[in-house]
């Protein structure tokens, strides 16, 4: 999943330096959450993206791990350097101690658009954690909310 090749460019985000691109695949796709974190005006949505990996359901939020499936997300431009520090704190990523972090921020090549960007990758074991079928957290979360309740007879 990590980027090893040189940068690639095309599409809507082509003119933006890849250091300023970040993809959100889970709860940060929600504008209200971004606003509550003080990110309004500090990041700008560029459009949809697709990330190579596997998405897992940790309950209130997802985890991205290396894999050969497609994860749906949204691509953003970082407008303010302080936004990255706020995102690192939210994702429990400590650049000085990555092995102890819940997530690590990695630069990965996207499937679409043909760019590389920052993505938070889960940094803990996922044995026994259910996968998000279809790789779309928002759709999965919606389905989870609308499951019929089962009552004991």
Describe this structure in words.
By secondary structure, this protein is of the alpha+beta class. It is 16% helix and 35% strand. A hairpin with a 4-residue loop joins strand 2 and strand 3 (62-78). It is globular. The termini are far apart. The model is unreliable at 2-12 and 145-153 (pLDDT under 50).
* SSE ordering: EHEEHEEH
- The tally of structural domains comes to 1
Physical arrangement of strands within the biggest beta sheet: 1-3-2-4-5
Instruction: Compute the number of helices.
Output: 3
Could you describe the largest sheet, including whether it forms a barrel? 5 strands, antiparallel
What is the number of E strands?
A: 5
Properties at a glance:
153 residues, alpha+beta, Hypothetical upf0131 protein ytfp, five-stranded antiparallel beta sheet, 3 helices, 35% strand, disordered N terminus
Topology:
Blueprint: E1 21-24, H1 31-36, E2 43-57, E3 62-78, H2 81-90, E4 103-112, E5 116-122, H3 137-145
Antiparallel strand pairs: 1-3, 2-3, 2-4, 4-5
Please provide a brief summary of the model.
This protein is α+β, with helices and mostly antiparallel strands and 153 residues long. It is 16% helix and 35% strand.
